[in-house]
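Input chain follows. Return C-alpha cells only.
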Amino acid sequence: MRRLPAPARVLAALTVLLPGAAVPAGAQTLEVDTVPGRFDFGKMWTYEYAPTEYFSETYGFDADQAWFDRVRLCVLRVPGCSASFVSPNGLVATNHHCVRGRIPSVQREGESLLDDGFYAANLAEERRIPGYYADRLIAAVDVSDEVLAAMDEAGPEARREARSGAIAAVQERLRREHGDEVHVEVRPLYHGGRYSAYVFRRFTDVRLVAAVELAIGFFGGDPDNF
C-alpha cells in the first residue's frame, strides 16, 4: 500500500477521527497552556522593537543604537530576497537563486551565462540588470500613535478610510523629510496593534559582477538556500 507523506497522513487521520467526537472512557484530559509566552511570535524582531534587555541578560551582549544602525545599513532588500553590502564600494552579495531569473537578461549573443557562469574582471565589464533594484533601509519609525489616533477618531464605519489617509500622510511627511527619491512603506505589526514606517533608499543601477554556473549554484538541490 502506498504511504502518504507525513503531513498528508496526519490530515487523513483527522478527517476520519473528527466526526466521531466521543471520548473513550478513561481518556486523560489534555491541559493546554494558554498563558501568553515571551516568544509566542518567535525570535525574529524588527530593528525598532529589538529586545536589547533580553540580549544582555541571555547572551551578555549589549547592543547600542550605533550597532543596530551599522547592521541595518549593511543589509539590503532585493526583489524576493535579502542581500548585503560586502565592500565600501557598493559590492553586494546575495544567493544565486535570487538573480538566476535575471541573468539571461544581461547575456549577449552566443553566451549562455547560466551554463558557463559570469565574472566581470573590472568595472567596465559589469552588466546592468534591467528592472532590478536594491532597497536600503535608512529609517524605521514607529507611527502607531498617528495611525491609531486617526482610526479611533473616525469611528467604526470609517476606520479603513481613516487608516489609509493616515498612512498616506505619514508617507508624504517622511518623503519630505528624507527626499522625494526614497520609498516609504507603512506596515501593521502585532495584528494591527502597532504601525511602523520603513524608509528605503532605492538603488536602480544594479549590475551583475559575478555568478557561478547553475550546476554549481544549485549544488545540493535546495531551492531556498543556494
